[in-house]
């Protein structure tokens, strides 16, 4: 009996728990993992909410179509306009490869349609990279070719976007005061643009550089940096030499090539122009309301995000295939730029008809720059 009582005592001492309590167990690995996921999810959601309610609001997000006045005061522009003196005003573009030849031709035709008072058109080209046939096509609508030496990227091109490797050659714009007759004022327009309306008022600007603020597709919208697709320039060969000297030492993001350099070099001195002078397709992608607001006054349309005259790999498109390429480009970006692609296609069709004789003569020329 005593032995039995002892056993019961040991049993209850070891296993007895007060009513309402439970044995203590360590949490499982799975439970710890689930708890961590829940905490992380809560933190992420809080961060997203805070950023949403405190995010940077771009002026592009606040845009309203309120104006009822013209972009340019016609009387003021007329009084400022300088008479065309011996072709000292010029419209200039560039050609670094055969792929952009039809774009230069279409740009030339679009400029002539605006009835601008400036009749001197110049295309800067690289003889080692542009074939006789392509140069002929590019100049068919009125651009006069002017050969220039390639300006190589600084630091052996480290960090540059590959397709921008030739873009530093654009700095040669400031050397055109050495031509005969000299160019005193010029409007530079990238080949991937169309002129929609005259912009003669720009030639009266007294600044070394004027340009339109750049546009981004993200929350920034636009910054104080300018886009180099349309530039108003006062050529000065001394300034050109100073730019070349500064190029190796200047600190700027290399990916955007000459555009980033120009923003660093001119910094506080560049005159910023209204968006209408550089209708960057990125603006339509970022803010369709702003695009619609400036479309009626747009002077130049800039085909940045989609180019209807080159392949998707930036290669040349045969002239006979351009209509097909335009149709393809119209469907890119879910058809966002269908209207703009159609406009370029119509302009090229007009170009190929108006300058058919010149373009036909180009077909018999060599199609390789290396065969020069």
TrEMBL record:
The chain crosses the membrane at residues 31-50. The keyword Transmembrane helix applies. The keyword Transmembrane helix applies. Keywords: Membrane, Transferase, Transmembrane, Transmembrane helix. One of its GO terms (molecular function) is transferase activity. This is Glycosyltransferase family 8 protein. The lineage of its organism: Eukaryota, Fungi, Dikarya, Basidiomycota, Agaricomycotina.
């Amino acid at each position: 009996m005593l032995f039995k009582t002892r056993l019961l005592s040991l049993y209850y001492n070891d296993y007895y728990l007060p009513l309402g309590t439970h044995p203590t167990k360590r949490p499982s690995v799975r439970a710890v993992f689930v708890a961590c996921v829940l905490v992380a999810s809560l933190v992420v959601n809080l961060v997203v909410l805070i950023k949403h309610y405190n995010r940077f609001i771009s002026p592009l997000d606040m845009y309203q179509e309120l104006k009822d006045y013209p972009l340019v005061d016609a009387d003021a522009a007329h009084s400022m306009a300088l008479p065309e003196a011996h072709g000292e005003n010029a419209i200039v573009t560039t050609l670094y490869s055969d792929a952009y030849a039809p774009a230069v031709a279409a740009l030339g035709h679009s400029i002539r349609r605006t009835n601008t008072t400036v009749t001197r058109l110049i295309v800067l080209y690289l003889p080692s990279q542009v074939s006789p046939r392509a140069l002929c096509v590019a100049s068919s609508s009125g651009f006069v070719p002017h050969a220039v030496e390639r300006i190589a990227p600084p630091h052996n091109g480290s960090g540059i976007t590959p397709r921008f490797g030739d873009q530093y050659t654009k700095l040669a714009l400031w050397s055109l005061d050495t031509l005969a007759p000299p160019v005193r004022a010029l409007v530079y327009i990238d080949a991937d643009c169309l002129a929609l309306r005259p912009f003669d008022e720009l030639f009266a600007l007294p600044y070394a550089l004027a340009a339109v603020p750049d546009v981004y597709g993200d929350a920034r919208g636009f910054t104080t940096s300018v886009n180099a697709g349309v530039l108003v320039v006062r050529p000065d060969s001394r300034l050109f030499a100073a730019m070349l000297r500064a190029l190796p030492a200047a600190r700027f993001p290399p990916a955007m090539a000459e555009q980033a350099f120009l923003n660093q070099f001119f910094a506080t001195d560049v005159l910023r122009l209204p968006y209408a002078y550089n209708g960057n397709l990125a603006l339509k992608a970022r803010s369709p309301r702003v695009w619609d607001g400036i479309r009626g006054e747009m002077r130049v349309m800039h085909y940045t995000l989609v180019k209807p005259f080159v392949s998707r790999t930036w290669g040349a498109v045969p002239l006979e295939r351009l209509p097909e390429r335009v149709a393809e480009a119209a469907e890119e970006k879910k058809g966002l730029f269908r209207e703009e692609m159609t406009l370029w296609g119509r302009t090229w069709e007009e170009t190929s008809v108006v300058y058919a004789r010149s373009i036909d003569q180009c077909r018999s020329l060599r199609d390789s720059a290396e065969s020069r």
